[in-house]
Amino acid sequence: MSKFTIRQSLLLLLTAAIWGVAFVAQSVGMDYVQPFTFNAVRNLIGAAVLVPVIFLLKKINKKNNENFTGKVSNQKIQSDQPEKSLNMRRDLIVGGVSCGVILFIASSLQQFGIQYTSVGKAGFITAMYIVLVPILGVFLHQRTGLRVWAAVAMAIAGLYLLCMTGDHLALNMGDVLLLLCAVAFSFHILVIDHFTPLVDGVKMSCIQFFTCGVLSFLCMVIFETPQLSRILAAWLPILYAGVMSCGVAYTLQIVGQRGMNPTVASLILSLESVISLLAGWLLLHQSLSGRELWGCVIMFAAIVLVQLPGKGEG
To answer: How far is CA 180 from CA 42, 105, 239, in A?
Structure first.
């Protein structure tokens, strides 16, 4: 394994760790503020954090272009620039707003759901999106092999063990909301997959965080009674969720995935579910029963299985 691959893998592992611990921040934040308030502040902070990153990347790209692009080629490029720039700007706005709306739905469901279940269960149920994405791909005429359906069956079995109470299946309100959250995140991934090749990923992320933040703010004003004192009391979990989970982790993901096999990258990122379980145990002293731990093991095995390349895949 090359030094480059090791470095990129470590960056992705750090991303997964930040996202996994973010479940703790989200859970603790609910002790102080209501869900829409938490999401409004964290997403607006996330958007603000990405603004200087955008200007920094723009400055770096401009310097690289000046170093490697000649004057003649510049004039040639500029003739097609207005139309291309207009299309990219349109795709950027449409993509950012679309992702923001779906992220608002997903994060709202997650924030409400995490109030009724443990951090570890929340992480694993949310990670179901990795299995759901290829299922949704069927409706987009994408080929889905037997391996994926086997992973789906395993994930359902794991979910059953996680949510079973006594001798019967008992989905509480939090479990249902987190399952719906996983479905929403599946659509979120598909929309990102569509727009990422067309636009600047960091700019689109900034727009999506801003859109999600504004929608959450409107719901906060309509449905909740936000208090500045309580927001300030929750400064640590909100700041972590906004700066680290939204701003830093997303940037690390972009840098870490560059030049990496997407299958390997997805597998490393899916470790956020395991880290959320460990974080809930270490930081909040939450524990799972033996049956629930087996459910986590089976669900994680399903996540790994669905990410492994099959015959003829890279």
So the answer is: 21, 9, 26
